[in-house]
Structure prediction request, 350 residues.
Amino acid sequence: MSPVAPALALDEAAVVLPKEERLRDPFGRAITDLRLSVTDRCNYRCVYCRTGNEGSQYTELSGEDYLRMAGLFVSLGVEKIRLTGGEPLLRNDLVELVRELASLRTIMGEPLDLALTTNGHLLEPLAGPLKAAGLRRITVSMDAVEPETFTAITRVPRSFERVLAGVRAAKQAGLEPVKVNCVLLRGFNDDQIEGFAELSRREGVVVRFIEFMPLGEDQSWKPETVVPIDELIDRLHSFRPLVELPRNAASETARRFTFDDGVGEIGIIAPVSRPFCGHCSRIRITSDGKIRTCLFSQDDHDLYKKMMRGGTNEELATYIRKIVHQKEKRHHIGEPEFQKPSRSMVHIGG
Ligand code: SF4
Prediction:
């Protein structure tokens, strides 16, 4: 991969951009967290995400293109980049892309906080090389702790053992804290709650339960499928008394808990029953290079097309600012005016 385009000498850009000119949306929220989808290809067909008969079509851009787009956002104040997909580990050039991204510096001259979300199926052999390339943190999506339910959800046989091996390899490699995200669906995997609490204590990983959101390709979302945070806290408390931990940052989406003996950590992300849009610091780029200002946006904004038409960094930065000024205040899940987003999760990138 060739080095970052000379026109995008971030150090120069970082120097000239005063703090108050960082990216902010119309509600005063600083946009410091970029979710960058590097493919919408996936080797899993999770029941709540994909219909299972998508065919083999997918969109991916070159590493250079993602690097340039990431560099633009970093020069405007982004401090954290999370690589997502589809399944990012399917990209052959991922380690190299991570190395290049890790060489970027924030406008304050600090290293980027570079993280990645994966389904873990390909993680075991890649954990070490990703860490060595500069990846800091990793989140593994796991929706069950016993193989049968795991296979029923992912629709990929013998996947549970591989993912658990990937989680252990990530810990071994020092990609700490290793987080395990579980999307909870009533009647599907809510019988796994106690098993996940044990996994957190046994494996020393942070387990985070996520309320099911209407982002799947089909219309399977119903309010009654959501396991709301209060019910979940009760379930965990009866497993073992919970102790709440302070949030790491105001924009952190999870409420954090440990158990009375301090072993294990649980996070609960409750976008449906306890929305956290007020502190939203996120913006997304889809695998085909479009900006999404919110997970539930109805519109995409084609940054890649502007780049391909020869847009200069200044022009593209101005475009990004303009789009951030259109960021939605919040989602409207469960409200009469709620509209399903224009893309499903696999094509947004989480
Ligand atoms: S729903 Fe939209 S505004 Fe709310 S936290 Fe998610 S991305 Fe931010």
Q: What stands out?
A: The longest strand covers residues 113-118. The longest helix spans residues 160-173. The CA atoms of residues 51 and 218 lie 6 Å apart.
